[in-house]
Structure formats: C-alpha cells, structure tokens
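Deliverable D2.4 — example input (structure tokens):
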C-alpha cells in the first residue's frame, strides 16, 4: 500500500530571552512602484543620511525591528553609481546563546509541540500500574485454573496471582486508564503523558496473554492487525474514490477591486547552492506585481555557500535574505517561523529551493481565498515531478504524488478530516498563522502537524488546482533519507496530539479523530508492519510453490495438518475432526482477511495504473505494475524512521537536490533590462564601494554546478559572520519598513564579500535542454 506523508538531537535552548515581534510596515508609494517591477529605485539623486531608503535590519542583539526614519532629502546633482550593489543579508543573532523564537514557541506550546515525543518514565509507570491492576483484578475474580505439580515456582506464582484470565485483563485495562488520567493531570514538565500508560497497557496485556495462552495471544494480535489494515485500506479507497475534484480554480483571472494584496513568499534554503539559481528564475516567472511580493530567502548561519550562490546570481530588489541564528533544532520550521515574524503580506506561501510553481498560482490562490468562506485559511496546491522519467524510482515517486495530490487529498477534504499538508506550496492567511503560533520547530513534518492544528482551531483547508513542479529523488539513499524523515514526522505528529486522547476526540470529533489516526498514524506504522507481513507472505508463497511442484494439492496444503512433517508450507485453516473449534473459527476468519488484504494490494496496483496518470507523463503503467518493490523501500524507510524516532527525533536529514542531471531545468524567462544603479549617498567620508559583477540573463540561467554540493560528509562551513558594529542602526535612525541596507551605506563583512576578480559561473551550454 503506497503512502506519502510530506542536525543533531535538539535539546531545548537554555535561558534565552523571549523574542520581540517585528513591527509590520509599508514602503513609500514611489519606491514601491519602482521596486515592484524588479528594478532598483531610480538613481537620480544623492541622499542625505546613512540609513536612507533601507527597509529594515535586525540588530545583532535581538530580532526586534527598529523605529522608522524620515524620508531622505534628494540632491539632484549627485552622480549615479555604475554598478548595483548586492543585497546584504539580514542577520538575526541569538539571545543568550539560543534562538529566541524557539524559546518563545516552547513556552507557548509546550503541551502540543514535539519537544518531547514519548516519556519512557510514564511507560514504565504504566507497566507497573497494569501489573498491580492485573493482580488485584485476578484476586477479585476468584478461582484460577489448576496447574500440574511439576510446574516451576514462577509458573505457580503467576498462576496464583494472575491465574484468572478475565479478571487479570480487566484489572490491567482499568489500571491503564487510571494511570493515563493521572499522566494527563500531572503534566510532567508541562507535557501531558496520557498515551504512554495506554501503550504500556496494550503491551502488558499481550505479554500476559503470551504466557497464559500463546494461541490466544496470536489470535488477538492477528485479529487487531487485520482490523486496522481493513479500516486503513477502506479509508484509502473512500478518499481516492471521492477525490475526483482536483481543487478550486478560477476560470478567468481578474484583478480584485482593491488590487492584488501583498503576498509573502518564504523560501527556506540549506545547502542548496546547486539549485539557488533555479528558484530565482521560478520567482521571475510568477505573474504577480513585483511591488506586491514580499520574498524572503531563509538561510542558516552555517551555510555561506548558498548565500554566495544567491548573491552571484543576483537577488532581486523585491526580495531579502534573512540569516536565522545558530541554534537547535536546525529544522525548516524554525527558519519559517523567522520568516513569519517578518512577514508583511496578507497571504503567505512556502516554496522549496527546487520548486517551479505555475506562473498564475499566487493569483489563483488570492481569488480562491476571496471566493471562499473566512474559515478557509489554507490552500494546498498540487505537487508533481518534472523528472518523472529519469529512472524507475522517479516513476514510482511520480505515481505516488499523482495519486496523493490529484485524488487522495481532495477525498480527505470531502470526508471532512484533518489534511496532512505537503511541505511546500501551502498558501495561508498570514493572520491565522500568527494566531496558531506558526510551525512547530521540533517537528520534522511541520506541514502535517500544522494541518492538524488548523483543523483543531476550527479552520478549513482546501486543495488548489495549480501545480508546483519539483525534482523527484533519483537516488535510493537520498530517497530513503527523505522518506524516513517524513514517516518519522508522521509518527511524531500522532504522538504529540494523542497525549490527551479524550481531548483529541473532543476537539476533532469521533470521525475527525478516526480520520487523523488512519491518515497519519497508519501511514507510518503500517508502512513498517508491511515489511514483516510481506516477508511472511512471500515465504509462504515460495513454500507452497515448492510443495505444489512436489505433487501436493493446494487445498490439502492449506487445510490438512501435516502429521508426517513432509510439507514445506504451513497449515493456514484449522478445520475438521479433532481441531479446537475456537482456533478453527479464528483461522478461517484470519485466512479470509489475509486474502482480502492481498486482493487490496492488487487493487492498489490497479489504482496506481488508473489514478496515477498525469497529462504529459507517459510510460508510468509498467512502473505501477512493479509498485510492490517500491512499497518494500517505503517499509525500509519506515523502520529507519522508527529508529531515529527513538534515538534522535529532531534530526533533519538533508535531502540533496540538483541530481536530475540538469536535463529538466526551467527555461530562462525574458528578463527586464539590467537594473539602473542605486543612488550614491552623500556622506562626509563615504567608504569605497565594493564592485561585483552585474547580474545578466546569462548569469541567471539555471545550471547544475559541477562540483558537489556542500555536502553532509564534508567539513562544516564557517558560520556567516555576526553583523559588525558598523552595520548596526541606531534606534532613532532606523527605518520602519523591512528591507535591506545598501553597500554604499556601510562596509560589507569580509565573510560575505566576493573574492577579488571572482566571476559568476558560466552560462549553461547552448545545447542544454530547457
């Protein structure tokens, strides 16, 4: 059954100060008109004052926006500079050695964040409580079954105290519920512990049954798994069957009466120098007014290579680069929260480094929001892969995404259950994001968690009929790293929201809670169980084939007891003379259920052939036939994710992009003329300007750098330098609106300068495919 979901271990930062929220502000109308077209302001004047026409800067000591400055005076006689200066990054520093936004989020959402995933202390308390409850229940129930005199002392002790099966199980169940209630009320370290005793209760009862009657234990375990599988498959069938509508979309794109609203675009980047140019070109292709785009590239402080790649390609004047502080956890949602703190737009969207959204996606999202109810606060666009035909793995990945985003998510919308969002192309109402606190910086699938959080707050999520093209992982190791993180994050999301089971059902409703379990927990848990079940099924199939070749009949192999031990395969249906009636009935039910599961997997292959198609993507049918091999890879990734959940739950395994061979790079759009030079500032002793190569259409063409990315196995890069004293703005001189400081104002830190004589990488060869 196919499934998608979407740094070192991070201890919570110690003693940081709470952050201050930057104040939102607006630029002047004249500056916005020129900057909005992708051009720098017209360089017709000199300006008095070192902080003029800058939008904002973050002081090293905090992430607080400073007060506004008066508009500069113009000197019409000042000459214009000959070359544009690169955009300087906004560097946000730590407070007391930690990220202030992480501490703020932890203080506000400790009970519902993934700072801790599971409390082993409360698991142990649950086990102890269940044992005590089982002993009490067994004694209250009365008589126990007799044992032979040659039984061991341990067997006699267990029989004396836990010998009544019904009383023992009842006592364990009551004790588990009581311990769970205590864990919710006590809230150790501010985090409820309601599900750990329940997990302990299930485990203790199964172990108890194993000692009491291993056949009964096997029957209960198999029956529970069959029920879960049946519900999960039935739920998936319903969602895919109902998901024929691919989302909202306006037939004609008409500008709203009040004009297009300001739109914030967050682009978190880490070790992405190979594809930094591509996202710049994708932004250039967006059909949206430049003065209404609030673009923020979010970089980590230990990633100067990506910063250098952006500066070399040329950051447009309507974008800014924000360097988040060094800190843990080093995750994408932590960077996004810093972008949200500086967001000025009415709406907000996240794009990844390799994304290529449809040019009209922002306008379609605005029109969809305007035509929807106010409680619709999120739109999930479709994701698809442009390099689907690179190899067999990318074909499998493309099939999975086509079913997930073209059918499954739309079905979840119609079923009215929480929507596990994708990691990119999520469009939000910015105000609602502030209300729910943004993203959980400790969750490695922050998108799935946010979808549940929005649903709990009474908001709705719809799908948007617009496509963002991405790069499919083409290497198995890179794919497993990504998928194990997704599945680990789905399990973490379940653990976080199931801490208070009663509250979960009350907030989501019985149907929403069931949908949450089947669409979140089952994705990770069943993906892991699939491997063991398929291995057993495959082994049995091989043994049956061997026995059939030896002349045995299939009916005899499945239903007759092998007294002579001559069969390779094992009996599956216990019926006939001398068989236990209970075991016989259970075996027949389980055999029928197993047959249904096998047929269900065959149906999923057919479903991939029919529903996995996308216009323009040909030759996927034969990959769909081989889908069971892909499911084995998913199971391997699931087991890796479970291991990391136990040992390093906050570790974000980096997915390397730019492995598509450069055959599917987006064509360079028709760019405007090179931007005019920025004004020269009139100062008493102006610092000498640092000259860099002016970006041109040829230097902006996307290409894959020949050297390997700043990879995980290489030596860590030196952190981006902290902002020097000369770059700090005094509060009374600082501008109000968030923007950049020009190089003619202040000297550039050495760590951010281009080497003398360094040139941009060469353009892509003429025969490169677009």
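Example output (designed residues):
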């Amino acid at each position: 059954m196919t499934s998608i979901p979407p740094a070192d271990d991070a201890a919570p930062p110690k003693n940081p100060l709470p952050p201050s929220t930057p104040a939102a502000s607006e630029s002047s109308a004249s500056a916005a008109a020129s900057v909005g077209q992708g051009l720098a302001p017209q360089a017709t004047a000199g300006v008095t004052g070192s902080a003029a026409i800058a939008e904002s800067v973050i002081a090293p000591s905090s992430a607080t926006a400073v007060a506004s400055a008066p508009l500069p005076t113009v000197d019409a006689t000042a000459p214009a500079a000959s070359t544009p200066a690169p955009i300087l990054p906004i560097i946000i520093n730590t407070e007391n050695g930690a990220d202030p936004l992480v501490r703020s989020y932890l203080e506000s959402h400790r009970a519902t964040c993934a700072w801790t995933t599971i409390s082993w202390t409360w698991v142990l308390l649950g086990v102890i409580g269940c044992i005590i409850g089982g002993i009490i229940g067994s004694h209250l129930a009365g008589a126990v079954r007799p044992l032979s005199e040659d039984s061991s002392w341990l067997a006699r002790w267990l029989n004396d105290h836990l010998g009544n099966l019904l009383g023992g199980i009842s006592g364990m169940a009551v004790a588990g519920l009581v311990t769970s209630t205590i864990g919710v009320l006590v809230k150790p370290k501010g985090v409820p512990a309601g599900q750990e005793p329940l997990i302990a209760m299930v485990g203790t009862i199964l172990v108890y049954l194993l000692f009491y009657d291993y056949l009964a234990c096997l029957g209960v375990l198999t029956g529970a798994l069959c029920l879960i599988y049946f519900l999960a498959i039935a739920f998936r069938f319903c969602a895919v069957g109902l998901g024929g509508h691919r989302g909202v979309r306006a037939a004609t794109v008409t500008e709203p009466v009040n004009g297009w609203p300001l739109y914030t675009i967050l682009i978190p980047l880490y070790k992405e120098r190979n594809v930094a140019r591509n996202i710049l070109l994708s932004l250039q292709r967006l059909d949206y007014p430049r003065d209404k785009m609030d673009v923020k590239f979010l970089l980590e402080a230990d990633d100067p290579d990506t910063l250098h790649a952006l500066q070399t390609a040329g950051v447009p004047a309507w974008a800014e680069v924000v360097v988040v502080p060094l800190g843990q956890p080093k995750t994408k949602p932590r960077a996004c929260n810093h972008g949200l703190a500086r967001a000025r737009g009415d709406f907000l969207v996240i794009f990844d480094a390799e994304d290529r959204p449809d040019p009209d996606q922002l306008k379609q999202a605005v029109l969809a929001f305007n035509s929807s109810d106010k409680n619709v606060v999120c739109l999930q666009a479709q994701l698809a892969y442009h390099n689907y035909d690179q190899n067999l793995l990318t074909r499998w990945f493309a099939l999975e995404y086509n079913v997930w985003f073209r059918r499954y998510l739309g079905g979840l919308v119609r079923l009215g259950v929480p929507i596990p969002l994708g990691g990119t192309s999520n469009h939000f109402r910015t105000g609602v994001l502030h209300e729910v606190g943004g993203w959980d910086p400790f969750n490695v699938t922050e998108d799935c968690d946010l979808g549940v959080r929005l649903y709990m707050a009474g908001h709705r999520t719809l799908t948007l009929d617009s496509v963002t093209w991405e790069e499919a992982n083409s290497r198995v190791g890179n794919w497993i790293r990504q998928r194990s993180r997704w599945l680990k994050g789905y399990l973490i999301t379940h653990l976080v929201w199931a801490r208070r089971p009663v509250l979960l059902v009350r907030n989501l409703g019985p149907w929403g809670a069931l949908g949450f379990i089947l669409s979140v927990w089952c994705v990770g848990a069943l993906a892991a169980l699939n491997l063991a079940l398929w291995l057993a099924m495959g082994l049995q199939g091989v043994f049956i084939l061997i026995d059939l070749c030896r002349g045995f009949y299939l009916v005899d192999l499945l239903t007759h007891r092998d007294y002579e031990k001559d069969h390779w395969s094992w009996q599956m249906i216990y019926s006939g003379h001398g068989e236990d009636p209970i075991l016989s009935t259970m075996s027949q039910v389980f055999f029928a259920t197993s047959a249904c599961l096998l047929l269900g997997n065959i149906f999923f292959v057919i479903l991939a052939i029919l529903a996995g198609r996308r216009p323009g993507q040909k030759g996927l049918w034969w990959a769909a036939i081989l889908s069971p091999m892909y499911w084995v890879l998913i199971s391997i990734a699931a087991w890796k994710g479970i291991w990391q959940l136990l040992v390093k739950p906050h570790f974000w395994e980096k997915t390397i992009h730019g492995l598509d061979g450069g055959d599917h790079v987006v064509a360079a759009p028709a760019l405007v003329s090179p931007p005019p030079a920025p004004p020269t500032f009139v100062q008493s002793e102006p610092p000498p300007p640092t000259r860099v190569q002016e970006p041109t259409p040829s230097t902006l063409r996307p290409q894959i750098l020949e050297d390997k990315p700043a990879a995980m196995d290489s030596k860590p890069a030196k952190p981006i330098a902290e902002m020097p004293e000369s770059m700090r703005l005094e509060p009374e001189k600082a501008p109000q609106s968030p923007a950049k400081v020009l190089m003619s104002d202040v000297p550039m830190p050495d760590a951010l300068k281009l080497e003398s004589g360094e040139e941009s990488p060469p353009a892509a060869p003429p025969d490169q495919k677009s």
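The two ends are 35 Å apart (CA to CA).
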